[in-house]
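ingest -> validate -> predict -> emit
validate: passed (alphabet ok, no gaps, 68 aa)
predict: started
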Amino acid sequence: MQYRIHRPIAVPIPMFKPNYGGSGGSASGVRPSLHKSANAYDVDMTCDITFHLENEIVSHWTNQGKTC
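emit:
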């Protein structure tokens, strides 16, 4: 028995903020968002979960993918 889980996510693009106290700048602290915007790029992540059955009972399971 196998399941595939799709997880769309919008990864924000850090925006440059000027550092008026010195040279250079810093990136804003942003979190991944499920909302689409012009300041993010969309990624479709997947996870495959496989249940191995013996006599119709799960004996063990495996997963593949980074979103599991």
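The longest strand covers residues 40-54.
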